[in-house]
Design a protein that fits this description.
This protein is an all-alpha fold and 156 residues long. Helices cover 78% and strands 0% of the residues.
């Protein structure tokens, strides 16, 4: 009959074996993510060349002083007003209907291009030419749109 097991010895992996296993895992991860690693290295190179990494390291080295200075600057009265205005601007942007604004801006761009084309012309417009221009469907549509805009703006 066999002797009963009284002690269990764990198989200990040497430091060298752990290191080899870790290197194999890293090598496999690098091989699996080659494109991402190369893009990351290229990005780091650009940050280094631009001096951003040096600045970031300096900021991190003195993070307590930097944070203290940032808090002091933000808590100054003019900066508090700027932050409030930024919040209000973001709230305003949230209320704008972007689809309708895009239609309006496209039309405004077309009008600006038309106006820019006529800047160097020495034309004048008489009162009768202005009245006859109302018969032009494009001009009439634009004036009607402006009148609706002014009416809506006046109601608020």
């Amino acid at each position: 009959m066999a002797k009963p097991i009284t002690t269990i010895k764990k198989i200990e992996v040497s430091q060298e074996e752990k290191r080899k296993q870790n290197l194999l895992e890293i090598e496999q991860a690098l091989a699996d993510n080659k494109e991402a690693v190369l893009e990351g290295i290229a990005c780091l190179r650009k940050l280094h060349d631009a001096g951003v990494l040096e600045i970031a390291n300096a900021l991190l080295a003195r993070k307590d002083q930097v944070l203290e200075n940032v808090v002091k600057e933000v808590s100054r009265k003019p900066n508090i007003d700027v932050l409030k205005n930024i919040v209000n601007l973001l709230m305003l942007l949230g209320t704008i209907d972007l689809e309708k604004l895009q239609v309006m801006s496209t039309r405004m761009n077309a009008g600006v291009q038309e106006a820019a084309a006529s800047v160097n012309k020495e034309e004048t417009t008489s009162f009768f030419q202005l009245l006859s221009a109302l018969k032009d469907p494009d001009i009439n549509r634009s004036i009607t749109m402006l009148l609706h805009f002014l009416r809506g703006m006046g109601k608020s």
